[in-house]
Structure prediction request, 149 residues.
Amino acid sequence: MKAVRKLYVLIAALAVLAPAAHVLELPNKLALDGALWLAVQQHLYRGWGPFIGAPLEIGALVLSVVVAVLCRRDRRVARAAVVGAAAYAGMIATFFVFNAPVNGVVSHVTIANLPPDWPLLRRQWETGHCIAALLGVIGLAAAIRAWLS
Prediction:
């Protein structure tokens, strides 16, 4: 059981890294013009979501549920794991509400047909990552609490 809780903390820590990095990049990314922002979206971030972000967030959600079930008799651990599960479910939902729609638009445009409201797309995408980072920190704190309890 201790190994599962340690793995839970490790996956939780990894799951928060990408959204936190987006938050740290935010001031500089807000200064990009449309062409450079589009290039970053289309080239720098390609493949991160399906190969890194999604597996880590889903893994953290699954491990939260596993810890909650395995430790259901220890209320402190189970409660912390349930909080973590809610945070990771929220991260996944945030992606589908905020980020996926922008990714869908950005994958099909060029600088020649970049929508005039592209700053709104950027704001939506960045907002999603800010929310995900906050939820990731909550999830990590819950995982740590479950591990230490």
In short: The chain has five helices and no strands. The mean pLDDT is 94. The radius of gyration is 17 Å. Residues 2-148 form one domain.
